[in-house]
Structures are given as structure tokens and as C-alpha cells.
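Session log. Operator J.P. requested a structure for one protein chain; no other inputs attached. Running the standard single-chain path with C-alpha cell output.
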Amino acid sequence: MKVGIVLEGGGMRGIWTCGVLDTLMDNNLDVDGIIGTSAGGIFGVNYFSKQKGRVIRYSKKYCRDIRYMSLLSLILTGNIINKKFAYYKVSKKYDIFNNNEFIKNNKDFYVSATNIKTGNTEYFKITNPMEQLEELRATSALPLVSRPVKINGNKYLDGGVSDSIPLEKMISLGYNKIIVILTQPLNYKKTQLSLKKQRIVKLKYRKYPNLVNKMLNRYKEYNEEIDKILKLENNKEIFVIRPSKSLNIKRLERNKNKLQEIYDLGIKDTNNILNNLKEFLKKE
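Structure written below.
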């Protein structure tokens, strides 16, 4: 049996995911691999570094710090989430990531990113997070408010543009017991971008028609993926953990109390399904 976790992104909805992961950590859930998109990737690395509570701690501490994320950072650097502070200084100085523990675990950890030239998803295997912070930035580089991240001569944006829920990739890696952690409640459907946003996307990324096509059709692909997940879930082929209600939180939330509320809901929702999850993992 090969157990894997698939993590959807969703900006600060990922704080709910952290509540889920920290609860699974409390219950000593041992998994062989994780694949995450966007916030799912950058928050998910803490599972294998065994740092329960790290994400909610630094998120609450720095969410209103202009060095972490701000319009000023967007104006000065092209990134609303500041590269140097949020990724490098926080993880290496202010709330140190346990890189040695992650490496020692020697587990599969992948993140997805969107190649802006091809519009296709590419997957990076993370073996040393502190030496692969650019790959982690790439998976979470939100379109319109982030500069593309350059890796090996290619440019990338958020993995959610082309593969919001990388379940198929996890299956292709040979995992046969898969836990999918979503950040939207049951029956959620993504809607088409407004005409105004479509115009902005077409103008901003006019040099990258494949990326534009992906962004404009993302809602269709996302909804098709959700339909597949529901079918597999109903057939007991995968186990899905999702919020019990809509997460009323901004994509770049700066309210500490709201962050704690969403994190606590993740803990509560996970405790409510723990027995069912254990039964799923027991079955051949």
C-alpha cells in the first residue's frame, strides 16, 4: 500500500488545510508522499518537516507586515507576496524551517507549476526545500499579482492555473491509497472570469496565448476535475477531506482572528472524519 496526499491550493484558504494537516500529524498519519498546488505546496512541506503549527504561527505574525505581503511590495517588486521576506527571511531566520528533518524523512514531495509559454503543468520534486525555494515560489506565484518565476530558463506561474488538484499526477506515481484535501465545500463550482477580468488577462499575458487560454478555461477544467473526484470518492477509490462550509476568507487575508478561525475549522472538520479515514486506510 502506498499512501499519498493531494493538496489543492486557494491562497489563504490553505490555512484550513494547515488545520487538517496538523490534526493528521497529531494522529501520526504516516504517508509516503504529498503533491501540492500553490498554497497546498508551500504549506504542505511542513508535514514532512514535522512542524505542527508553524504556518498558522507565522501567518498570524506577519499577515499585516508590509514586508510580508502588501501593495507596496507589488509596486516595488512586482510580487504582492514579497520574495525576499516571505520566502527567504521567514523560513531561514524568523520562523526557521526544519530542512534537515524534511530531508531525513526522504519522502516524495512534489509541487505543480504552470509553464507560461506552453500553458502546461510541470511538476517539481522537492528534496531540499531551502535550496528549492524558487520551485516553491513558482507553484504559488499568483497570476496578475506576481512576476513569473524563472527556473532552468523557463518561466512559471501558479500551478493552480493548469492543474488545481493534481490527483492524476499522484495516481501516475503509483499511489493506491490517496487522500485528497480540497479547500472548497461539497457542491462548489468555479465560475467563468468576468468580462473585465478576461480583458485584463488577455492584455497582461498577450505574449503567452497558451497561458491566456488556460486561465480563461480554468473554470471548466476545475469543474470537470471535481466531477471526477466525486465519482472516485463515491466509489470509495479515494478519500476526500473538504471544508464543512464555505471558507469566508480573502485570498490574501490579513485578519489574524479570521486566520485562526479558519485554522480551527480545519481541525474540527478533520476530527469529525478521522474514524472514516482510518477505515479507508485499513481496507485493501
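Operator note: The CA atoms of residues 149 and 156 lie 5 Å apart.
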